[in-house]
Amino acid sequence: MKKVKKKHIIIGTIAFILILIGIFFIQFTSLGYKMTVPLRGYTQVKDNIYIDKDFNGDSSKVLSIIDEAHKRLVTFWGNTESKPTIIISNNEKELKKLGWTGNPALTTTAVFFGAHSYVVISPKGLNVDVTAHELTHAELHHRVYNGKILPKTLIPIWFDEGIATQNDYRENYSYDAWVKVTNNGKNITDFSKLKNQSQFYNPNIDVRRYNYIISKHEVGEWLKTHSIKDLIALIDAVNEGKSFDKLYYTK
Hints:
The chain crosses the membrane at residues 9-28. Keywords: Membrane, Transmembrane, Transmembrane helix. The protein has helices at residues 2-28, 30-35, 59-77, 92-97, 128-145, 157-164, 175-182, 197-200, 205-224, 228-239, 244-248, and strands spanning 43-46, 49-51, 85-88, 105-110, 116-121. The chain is an alpha/beta fold. It folds into 2 domains: 1-150, 3-Layer(aba) Sandwich (Glutaredoxin); 153-251, no CATH class. Strands 1-2-3-5-4 form a 5-stranded mixed beta sheet. The N and C termini lie far apart (70 Å). 33% of the residues are buried.
């Protein structure tokens, strides 16, 4: 009887700890908050699209922006496979709970036996360029990480951003901007130094913008000599465990 009682106590303790961990994850992590947005009073305006109940903008305009952004993805990829959760808010307190740090928008991909992205868009990001940029991240992440059990970086950040900016037509990342910041290609950072987040997302806004510009140009040049089918084949191979560098730099 004592053994049975002790076993029940252990099981109960473990269950209690797991419940506490779950509560902490849901209430005090941005990913947990994103994952439970449907339970937090947001208005679902379409499948996987949620708008803060206090949002004072035009929801039909929001849907139009998302629709136009999605068209860019279809044009680029040929078809889309991802179904990210898109969250819109203009409440700074709410945005911070969702992981917002001041950027127009952000994409977080949860890799737990699959890949599902959460795209958070602030008022500054409610335009087709920013939305298409973030949705492209979601599509790429789905293709690269789908079927994975645990998170592991399989592609360098410069490539991730280089792909996302292909569908982002802002002048900030244009060819003319590339010519200017690189002295027409004479000054380009070694991409091996831009593989991870700390390397790419430099605190200096000018350096960070430079990293975006050269990444967009690099991927754009690669796509000039490779088809979208080649890109998808590369992504599929990375998903299967092959080295990104060996695949990308093979002519």
